[in-house]
Design a protein that fits this description.
Length: 221
């Protein structure tokens, strides 16, 4: 297995890059999709979330009301910590399971992690950063993903900066151009990926230490 991280700001084109890499034969481990999966109705995570935050975080059909959770944790750092303590271990376990499933193969495995710069991870052979100017991010989020401009800008401002992300990059995709330009870069990226050495068949994924949470975790100390 060749194991590489993929990250980029919201609307930068990570999902598009993932799809193109999947087309080349890569296995994609999509952190966001796993977050949704481990919270499906009937899951231990959803049961724990309902026990912690009350039934108001459940929608009428029994699924998680993500907006209700977002509203609770947005202004309450302790609630955010509690949420992460419930969700992160389950997501980490499932990501590790999928890596272990591939470790005896020679596949290129891509960990698609939106907040990889904010929550660094050891044990990867490289990091791909999808880079676009903020104005392009805003334009695509508004035009293609139905965001209000103000909401798009607010989300971008809460993430790592372009510079912070680029500092961690081993391979940069410039997605400010059209899809043709992106596709050409994917060809180069693939050449680089398959040139990386195979990891040993007994590779053990390294789970990142949980995020310390907000900058000032305890106001009393
Ligand atoms: P992310 O996964 O990083 O949030 P997406 O891959 O969903 O971003 O891309 C955001 C939007 O921009 C999508 O609608 C996608 O189809 C579109 N998009 C991505 N790359 C390009 C490009 N090079 N040219 C035009 N549209 C693009």
């Amino acid at each position: 297995m060749i194991l590489v991280g993929l990250t980029g700001g919201i609307g930068s084109g990570k999902s598009t890059v993932s799809l193109l890499l999947e087309g080349k034969g890569a296995i994609i481990i999509d952190a966001d999709a796993i977050v949704r999966e481990v919270q499906l109705p009937g899951s231990p995570v959803l049961t724990e979330l309902a026990a912690k935050f009350g039934s108001e975080v459940l929608a009428a059909d029994g699924s998680l009301d993500r907006q209700a959770v977002a509203n609770i944790v947005f202004t309450d750092p302790d609630a955010l910590k509690a949420l992460n303590a419930i969700v992160h271990p389950a997501v980490g376990k499932e990501m590790n399971r999928r890596m272990i499933e591939q470790r005896t193969t020679d596949r290129v495995v891509i960990l698609d992690i939106p907040l990889l710069t904010e929550n660094p991870r050891e044990g990867l052979q490289g990091k791909i950063v999808v880079d676009v100017p903020i104005e392009v991010q805003v334009e695509r989020l508004v035009n293609f993903r139905g965001f209000a401009e103000e909401d798009a800008r607010a989300r971008i401002s809460r993430q790592a900066t372009r510079e912070q992300r680029l500092e961690t990059a081993d391979f940069v995709i410039d997605n400010s151009g059209d899809l043709e330009s992106l596709t050409a870069q994917i060809d180069q990226l693939w050449t680089w990926l398959v040139s990386l050495p195979q990891l040993p068949a007994d590779y053990e994924p390294i789970t990142p230490t949980p995020n310390a949470g907000p900058k000032s975790p305890n106001k009393n100390t």
